[in-house]
Give the backbone structure.
Amino acid sequence: MVSIKSNLNLEPEMNHLSANPILQVENLTLGYRRSAWFGTSSRQQLIIRDISFAIQPNETVALVGQSGVGKTSIANSILRFLKPWHGNIYFLGQNIWQIPASRFRLIRPRLQPIFQDSATALNPMMTIDQAIMDGMKHLKLSHAEAQQRLNELLQMVELEPALCNHYPRQLSGGQRQRVVIARALATEPSLLILDEPLSALDLVTAVQIIDLLRSMRQRLNLSCLLITHDLMLAQQLADRIIVLKDGVVIDSGPTQQILTNPSHHFTRQLIHAAGILNRKT
Amino acid sequence: MTRLQGMRHSRFWSNRNCRYGTIIVGLILLMAIIGPLFAPYDPTQQNLEQILQPPSLKHICGTDFYGRDLLSRLLHGSRISLGVSLSATFLTMLIGIVLGLLAGYFRGWLDKFLMRIVDILLGFPRLFIILLIVGISRSTLLMTIVVLAGFSWMEIARLVRAETRSILTTNYLMAAQALGLNHFRLIIAYILPNLRGMLLTSTNLLIASMLTIESSLSFLGLGVNEPNASWGTLLSQGRLDPTGAWWVALFAGIAIIITVVGFNLLGDGLNQIQSESRT
């Protein structure tokens, strides 16, 4: 495999952080301000209140909760798309909302999102190979090296090289999600943010993608933040689970502990609901 | 050709407006490019013995007040009329796209500043300002093109800005930002190609509008100067004796109408295809 980390122009302090968490979220409070009356006044809506968690190297943490609880807002804040009201987010030891944008751009490729709807996650005007190659832009690889890496990535996500010249709309949902994963892996990320990665897929494809994500995680020593409302998916992929309700953490711990001995009645409701759904499917 | 390109190609041809628009525009452009080579007479050569001859086999479109062959003037005029409207459209699109992208992408004070300029310029009656500037300055082709573009880019800039802002909220753009790509790459590879449908439609409608304005300027004597001909100047000469020498204005008028209809059909057809692909 073409070496990548050697090409990353990171500050020395970022390269010896293996003992530290990959991601650390401290007292995060998020919300939206909505303007009303032509900007003369604004309404504030609190989404997430004072939550903290950390993700260690090679660990997968699942954020579980009902739809609309603010899970995706947390992801957007970690990706520096949504500014927190309070709190800090450290990625590779850098406080991402305090460092300048130019500095953040150096570490940004190591923090990759995988969105729930693969149909909207790929540029409709770009072929598959161009989309994946864009993930390697910051590595400054030669054309031959980039081509070699593209082939390796396609092989890794089990996509046929013949699909390279295709546009996203010519692919199935499962194939598109594999392209999204390949593009994310092209940057050799330290952390993947999986935002409901299976919600737009059928059951058979979803199982294939779970297997793929699991094998990628082990092969590449990836850390993952899994955002889902599905406890069963969290059971398949996560080492730890954090349960959110009404914008606060109500339960957290190792996956087995949460599933076998939940401390909050809402977690028990979730497990019960997932069990019923599981039996029905 | 990929399967997707083939699919778009067939959708383009199966759309009646696109098909007829392309044929009309193609023929008009062909006329402008190779037509003057087949012009039977020198378009500026006066023949005082042949003044105001009606259409005949010798002069298919008749002659004007100076005995010049109108078919030759029509063929040469097509180059000037289409040249001015295409150049003005190109310049308009260039200014509108660049400023619209900058305003929509970078937002903040640049967006506010550019949009206030747009608001101010849109506040003026466009044709009046163009007439005023072309009227008080020396009327040249370049001047006409610059003035036409200078007061027409605002709508394009607004459209591009609005589309850019909507693309900024898409998942594919957020994913591209997460790849650490620079602003230039994001604009060129992710935003601009996704504006293509809207820009194609706007371009065709704008060419038709520019042709009309250029013809109006020439009609009022503010466009192309004699002895050069544009369709507008031919139309203008026709007003001197519209019932007696009806042929002077008729053929130029027909050429303008067919060209405007052609570009409008193409623009509408592209707009329909774009709407269908969104639903």
Summary: Chain A touches chain B at residues 79, 81, 105-106, 108-109, 111-113, 115, 117, 120-126, 130, 134-135, 137-138, 165-167, 169-170, 180, 183, 187 (CB under 8 Å).
